[in-house]
Amino acid sequence: MDLMLAKTIVLAASAIGAGCGMIAGIGPGIGQGYAAGKAVESVARQPEAKGDIISTMVLGQAISESTGIYSLVIALILLYANPFVGMLG
Q1: How many domains does the chain have?
Q2: Would residue 46 be called left, alpha or beta, if left means φ above 0 and alpha means ψ between -120 and 50 degrees?
Q3: End-to-end C-alpha distance for the chain, whole angstroms
Q4: CB under 8 Å to 56, separation ≥6 — which residues?
Q5: Does 46 fall in a domain?
Q6: What does each C-alpha distance from 50 to 37, 62, 63 come to in angstroms?
Q7: CATH number of the domain that 16 lies in?
Q8: How far apart are CA 36 and CA 65, in angstroms?
Q9: If you ran DSSP here, which 8-state letter would residue 29 be given?
C-alpha cells in the first residue's frame, strides 16, 4: 500500500476516533446536571444536612468530570500528537 494512502487512512481514522471520543463528554454533562438537581432537592427537603449533601455532590462531580477530561485528552492526542503516524515508517 502506498505510504501516503496509509497515512491518510490513519489520519482519517484518528479524526473519526477523536470525534467518537468527544461523545463521551455528553455523559458527564448530563450526569452532573442530574446530580446537582437531586442535591438541590435533597437540601430543600433536609436543610440541616446541607454540608454533607453538598460535599458528597462535589466529590461525585469531580469523579464524573474526570471521564470527560480523559476523553478530551485522548482526542487531542489523536488529532495533534498522533502516535500511529510514526508507526507507518
Answers
A1: 1
A2: beta
A3: 12
A4: 39
A5: yes
A6: 14, 18, 20
A7: 1.20.20.10
A8: 13
A9: H
Would you state the cell numbers that stand for residue 12, as one nine-digit string? 482519517
DSSP 82: -
Which helix (H) or strand (E) covers residue 66, if one does? helix 50-80
Instruction: Identify the three-state secondary structure at position 30.
Output: helix
C-alpha 63: how far from its chain's center? 11
pTM, two decimal places: 0.70
Q: Are 53 and 42 in contact (CB under 8 A)?
A: yes
Q: Which amino acid is at 47?
A: P
* Segment 16-41, tens digit of pLDDT: 999 988 888 888 889 899 999 999 99
pLDDT for the residue numbered 21: 86
Number of H helices, E strands in the chain: 3, 0
Grid look-up 458527564 returns 28
